[in-house]
Design brief:
Rossmann fold, binds flavin-adenine dinucleotide, single chain, Elongation Factor Tu (Ef-tu), domain 3, alpha/beta, binds FE2/S2 (inorganic) cluster, 17 strands, Ubiquitin-like (UB roll)
């Protein structure tokens, strides 16, 4: 049993708090339903949230009984409230919107004061109805004085289409805090790094790559960026330029669809090309981002190819 806004609701067996509320016609904010985006953050004013539902939250949130509604199958009575809508959010300004290819936008926002992040993390961007979706940061803190996002515009997508149709330079926009543990750590500068992403999965990898180069990473860095067609690749010139300037970095754009390819492009899916190329991932650090099925399948195959689980960071762009 849970209590929400003064009313009791019974949960079905193994039902999450979020699913129970949705089944009763209540629509708290949510997006990925996978414990990733933190849009469904809730707080228990009575009862203790399960530890699974607090994975990835900050210690200060855990100690105040915050939890993720989509990941919480309660094992005791809980009285639940939503966080104050201003908590953990900042209002900022749109600096620039540009087209990176036919369907991907580059959105640059002013970095709010006291907004801290690591390259590779993601934030929730809220539309003017308060509906939020996660978008990965492509910018590098301390180097870029803006926050950069790469947004794949989904036909009829609530938030991505809103950004395309309704957002203009100088508009105010609400964002959440930066979250996610797929970040570059320079504790082993000699470790080889594989960055594998599809579509806008390039966004966090672009931030991680540039951070590693700035920290003068010494090991091999290979970026496999996958796309169905060559027209859907983006940032090719900037990435090739970085590869020309840094001998340790190799850029491998991969095309999975059937089309005649120039020599600079590799045929195949990015994850397959990486597995064929590297073969043994023992001691490699691996970052996987983008299509959720690709990320899930690759995490397993790269582990089976020798990488240790703690060296694999996976950010599936999951959607409910
Ligand atoms: C951790 C994380 C990081 C993310 N980072 C990025 C990022 O950097 N850039 C980015 O563009 N997106 C990113 N996403 C995805 C993003 O959060 C949204 O899911 C996406 O923009 C769609 O939201 P929407 O509101 O436009 O569409 P919705 O209104 O949510 O969906 C509209 C319809 O499209 C379907 N749909 C949604 N997404 C897709 C898709 N990718 N392919 C096919 N159908 C789809 C839905 O099932 C639904 O039927 C990330 C997601 C997560 C969880
Ligand atoms: S974390 Fe619960 S909906 Fe994304």
């Amino acid at each position: 049993m849970i209590k929400y806004e003064g009313r009791n609701y019974s949960l079905d067996q193994n039902e999450t708090v979020l699913d129970c509320l949705l089944r009763h016609g209540i629509a708290p904010p949510y997006s990925c339903k996978s414990g990733l985006c933190h849009t469904c953050l809730m707080r228990a004013t009575q009862g203790t949230p399960t530890s699974d539902s607090q994975k990835g939250l900050k210690q200060s949130q855990i100690s105040q009984n915050y939890f993720l509604g989509c990941a919480c199958v309660p094992n005791e009575f809980m009285d639940i409230t939503l966080p104050n809508s201003e908590a953990f959010r900042s209002i900022t300004t749109v600096l620039n919107i540009a087209q990176l290819n036919d369907s991907v936008l580059r959105l640059r926002l002013k970095k709010p004061d006291n907004f801290n992040y690591f390259a590779g993390q993601y934030v929730t961007i809220y539309n003017n109805n308060g509906i939020g979706r996660s978008y990965s940061l492509a910018s590098v803190p301390g180097t870029d004085d803006f926050l950069e996002f790469h947004i794949q515009v989904i036909p009829n997508g609530t938030v991505s289409n809103w950004i395309k149709q309704a957002v203009s330079v100088d508009d105010s926009i609400t964002i959440g805090e930066a979250i996610g543990s797929g970040i570059y750590t320079n504790d082993n500068l000699k470790q080889s790094i594989a960055l594998i992403g599809t579509g806008t999965g390039l966004a966090p990898l672009y931030g991680i790559l540039r951070t590693a180069l700035l920290k003068q990473h010494k090991g091999d860095i290979r970026l496999y960026h996958g796309s169905r067609s060559s027209a859907n690749l983006y940032l090719q010139d900037a990435l090739q330029q970085l590869a020309n300037e840094h001998s340790a970095f190799t850029y491998i754009p991969c095309i999975s669809g059937a089309e005649p390819l120039p020599e600079a492009l590799t045929a195949g899916r990015a994850n397959d090309v990486a597995l064929k190329d590297i073969v043994n991932f023992k001691k490699w650090r691996v970052y996987l981002c983008g299509n959720a099925d690709m990320v899930k399948a690759s995490k397993r195959s790269i582990f089976l190819a020798g990488a240790s689980m703690q060296d694999i960071s996976a950010d599936p762009f999951a959607h409910a």
